[in-house]
Amino acid sequence: MRENTPNFELLHGLESTYDQIQKVALGGMAEIYRGRQKNLDRPVAIKRIRPDLRQNADIRERFRREAKSSANMLHQNLAHVYDYIQIHDDAYIIMEYIDGLDLAEVIEKAGALPLDVATIIAIKILNGLSHVHAHGMVHRDLKPDNIRISARGEIKIMDFGIAFDPSEGNLTMPGILIGSPHYLSPEQVTGSRLDNRSDIFAFGITFYEMLTAKRPFYETERESVYARIQKASYIDPMQLRPEIPVFYSQIIQSCLQTDPDKRPTNVNRISATLIEYLARNYSLSFEARVKQFLMQNNLMHGDPNLIDVAEPTSPGAKSGMGASLSRAEKIKKWVSKFLIFTAGLSAGIVTTQHYLRIQKNSDASTENSTTATSVPAQAQQQPQASPPNATTKQPSTTKPSKSGKARNKKRSN
Ligand SMILES: Nc1ncnc2c1ncn2[C@@H]1O[C@H](COP(=O)(O)OP(=O)(O)O)[C@@H](O)[C@H]1O
Ligand SMILES: [Mg+2]
Fold it and tell me: 296 pLDDT band (50/70/90 cuts)?
């Protein structure tokens, strides 16, 4: 068994419980390792404060709070914390290892996401946020770098490093930039009091970025990012991508209001609208669709056995919305096809009967005339109620039925 060989790192104090420890990421505040919990034989992520910040007592306190706040929230759209281990001045957060990619990486590699995929991810982010807000907490650092997409198509909000937990009170960290400037809300820029509406602002930015592969707020020659955030000065996403539904643009606009009072207060209302829209246009399970998108864009690394085959879908699925019909729509389509078929069949029967009647009349008049054309008895007796097969095969009025053709042939002989 591979156990802390030269390729693997030793994190002091963890050897008895975890092995195969390998550094996988370096964030703004922390290093992330992947390891294996030996007794349960499961992968774990181990988060540790960066060495250059470890001496800062405020940061260590912040790290402890991050562990505590996230450990008390259990939700499928939040990274699940298993444990917090403190050893002298060092500390580790042990959490589920999310094998996959950060949303920022996905956007960087794939560009603007298909509308349905962006919508699914948005819904999942909102679900996770709803849970955070229900705990009275504010994430305060929501952005594509802090959202992880697993190989199974799951979406998880990570990094509660600067989350506000009312049970812990305020904690300032002088000298440390909190959050990337591009994702700050106006109230973060001015240092005003924050609440869940700041996360809604950050959601608006993230949704915009998923749909356009561009950040709404960026520096220009004349204006700083901060100035543009405060003025809500950004290009309408529909200008960058015309197929974006108008109401998506309206959702973003409402989230990016400078005045928090004008933003939606409840994330569930936004997700309900998106779910309803998606349900009308799409039938794949959310995870299956995200997984399918990752596979189509060759974005999947890691263990291919983790990836189940995506559910079957129509060929247009890649382009997104409306790609696949809902079950109700499929049933409707089949019923209408059946009705059209039945109508065609009835028309065919009536037409054939009509045709046979004319033939019979003309045969009778031919027999009555002096012309000596013999008509076979079988054809003469062609009944008004002809066998079903004869009528169903040729409902058309322009072409004679098969039996009619045969009879005409015989007649000409
Ligand atoms: N549970 C996890 N599973 C897999 N990768 C993770 C996990 N947590 C973090 N990472 C990776 O590490 C990076 C930094 O982690 P994060 O919690 O955002 O730390 P920071 O506070 O330094 O930004 C993430 O962007 C992600 O790529
Ligand atoms: Mg982060």
Answer: confident
